[in-house]
Amino acid sequence: DAGITQSPRYKITETGRQVTLMCHQTWSHSYMFWYRQDLGHGLRLIYYSAAADITDKGEVPDGYVVSRSKTENFPLTLESATRSQTSVYFCASKHGGQGAHEQYFGPGTRLTVT
Amino acid sequence: LAKTTQPISMDSYEGQEVNITCSHNNIATNDYITWYQQFPSQGPRFIIQGYKTKVTNEVASLFIPADRKSSTLSLPRVSLSDTAVYYCLVGGYSNASKIIFGSGTRLSIQP
Questions:
Q1: Segment 55-84 of chain B within 8 Å of chain A by CB
Q2: Which residues contact A98 (CB under 8 A, 6 or more apart)?
Q3: Number of domains in chain B
Q4: In whole angstroms, what is the distance from residue B22 CA to residue B88 CA?
Q5: Does residue B2 sit within a domain?
Q6: Whole domain around residue B47: which residue ranges?
Q7: Looking at the complex, does the CB of residue B34 fall below 8 Å from at least one CB of chain A?
Q8: CA A90, CA A54: separation in Å to the nearest integer?
């Protein structure tokens, strides 16, 4: 199916465990993003990638690691999960054309850290 | 950082025009203004983008004054299905780390 998908959709993990959230897009968009959205709040950028093998920090990168070996995939890893990382995580992508600012968002992953 | 300020919430009725204003006093020369809509338990959905003056598409209009320090999203003849949170986003992708989503405006449409 064309679009942007995230897996898993729901995840419960324990404090201290490593967890990886997956993001896959089929459009070959150059840009990909990871956001977190805490209950009742707006989105905050964690990391983004302008192309394969190019990543950079956003507003709240601490405790997270990303990689982008292939254009279509952008996994987000929580190296040692903490309760403060309980949130909904959204992945997004956009193409790199001049003046193109439309991000396409995935359905989100609801992560609970106990 | 081009921080944005929006009203926390707004109420309106079906069939009315709704205008949501976003303040972005520190907007940079190469920043664009983008608006998103978000329903509960879903990712945000792009509505409209603009750089200056007026932009219109099939769902909304975006008005940007000459100084670009604010913008207004206009939703014509709203319906119950327009009840959602609306986010104003200011930024350019030359430095995507500076992209900031505000807290959004919770729009509630009544019959």
A1: none
A2: none
A3: 1
A4: 6
A5: no
A6: 9-110
A7: yes
A8: 19
CB contact under 8 A, B93 and A45: no
> Per-residue pLDDT tens for B26-41?
888 888 899 999 999 8
**Tokens at B16, concatenated:** 């009315």
Q: Is residue B1, in this structure, part of any structural domain at all?
A: no
Residue B73 clears pLDDT 90, i.e. is over it: yes
Assign residue B39 the CATH number of its domain.
2.60.40.10
Q: How far does the CA of residue B102 sit from the closest CA of chain A (Å)?
A: 6
Q: How many CB atoms lie within 10 A of CB A31?
A: 20
Contacts of A43 in chain B (CB under 8 A): 44, 87, 101
Domains contained in chain A, CATH given: 4-95 (2.60.40.10)
For A83-109, the pLDDT digits (tens) are 999 999 999 999 876 666 789 999 999
Interface size A-B, in CB pairs within 8 Å, comes to: 61
Q: How far apart are CA B100 and CA B2, in angstroms?
A: 7
> How many whole angstroms separate alpha carbon B13 and alpha carbon B83?
10
Return d(Cα A53, Cα A67) in angstroms, integer.
7
User: Does the structure show a pLDDT above 70 at B79?
Assistant: yes
